[in-house]
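Hi V.,

You were right to ask for the full record rather than a summary. Here it is.
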Amino acid sequence: MSDDQDRYDHHSLLPENSTRLERGLERAFRQLLESIESPHPHLLDPQRTPVAFLPYLGADHGVSEWDPHASEAEKRRTVAAAWPTKRLAGTREALELAVRSLGLEPEVIPWHQEDPTGDPYHVHVIAVNSDVLGADAQQRLERRLAEAKAERDVLTLEIVGESRGWAYVGAVTYDGDLTAVYPYAAEDAEVTGPFFVGIGVDVVDTATVYPMRNQTGRLTIDGHLYRTANGAALRLNARLPDNG
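Predicted structure:
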């Protein structure tokens, strides 16, 4: 007998007196079922199961507050929070899970943390809403909180609306240099070198030449005009004697 036959006989649900036909049918159906991928891991996961299967999964988890007209996201949150809420019932975590199952943000303030201190076992639950709530949202939330709280606790519910958005803050700086341009002004220049000192003398001699006077002879020049040293005009009518 093969190993597959041994494995089949080991997991068989048929009694010892089963016929060969019964064993053959069981083996055929087993091989058919093993060729199909098991859907159970997805079916039992509230986040991955098909939407049509959510009501059945919610009933399996013991969900008592169910709205068939709720959104798909709310249905998945409700189913996912069912078992943890039941396990933690009577604690702060259970109250927070009940609020979050409706898409709200919780703030749980027990009586001993209030200012001033409240009555014993009074719990103030604040549900912060950032979306649009239905008309029966408060009643539905109160029913879920009633299942999550301890029997001795008295709850006070407050639903607060909140709007969120982006706030942009910017800053601009303008930086630069201021340059003043003035006309060019040469700096004081220093020139070094030998220094020479010279003296020049200009001497001018003035000579006055007078005609020499002839004391021994006579000069005869007809018709010529001469001037003496003092500028006087002379008209000479003389004749030079012939020495020959």
